[in-house]
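Title: Prediction job returns without error message
Component: structure pipeline
Severity: low
Priority: P3
Assignee: unassigned

Description:
Job completed but the reporter wants confirmation the result is attached to the right record. Sequence as submitted:
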Amino acid sequence: MVAIALHSVIPVRTEAREGAEQNTQMLFGELCQILDEQPRWRRIRLESDGQEGWVDAKMITPMTDKEYATHKKALKTAATVAFPMAYAMSENNGQTIPLTAGTKLTNYQSPMTNEASPARFEVLGVGFRIDPSMVITAPLEMNQENLLKAVRFFINVPYLWGGKNALGMDCSGFTQTVMNLFGKTLLRNASEQVTQGKPIKDLSKAKAGDLVFFTKSPMTNDQLPITHVGIVIDPERVIHCSGRVKVEKLDSQGIFNAETGEYSHHLVAIRRV
């Protein structure tokens, strides 16, 4: 059985209970496979990145095979919310729904008259209106200028374990969301993202948009687990979410925290996706 998210953000938890840890989130329009059922809960697998977990049954909407096939096809040409938060208005009842960056807008139609007019998208036969300035209709070209434009409104978004929206993100949720704007599909966790793309061996060769991966401690003879990821702005700066989204100094040792005078994260890998 398959289902869709028709809420802005749905918490996906490690166990079938409200107090369980959130390991990721499901955004409006995302699809999932239902793997297991309990009276109040459904165990799901997200189609976007394969993450599994439990969601409140009333927060997802089951789909027919025809609805699923139609929506899945429409996702291939969907537009994308590019700002941390935008608002769409339902044509059915006039109610608004907040949509976070990375949300896919299927059957998107640009304004027919002028830029001040709203754009339109449609999900399961329901039409919505949205400000077209909040949306990109094609992936951005990866370069430093576009990267800085894309991330400037994310600065100071607070850290939230399992989060990937403007009210809270973890490090890999941030990289997944930002790279989505450039047409790059990342897996969910830093330990998974480090397997994607090709390795860059020297930080001096890194370019804007490369991913940098870190451990909590300097490397020893034993390989330490990947615990953090950020995005290269240039070989001396990284943007990442640690406490909040911020730009910090980057060098071959890792991320240097100017406030403490110490390295907060130790560099172990660079990947270009």
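Comment from assignee: result matches the submitted record. The chain has three domains: 2-73, 77-136, 144-272.
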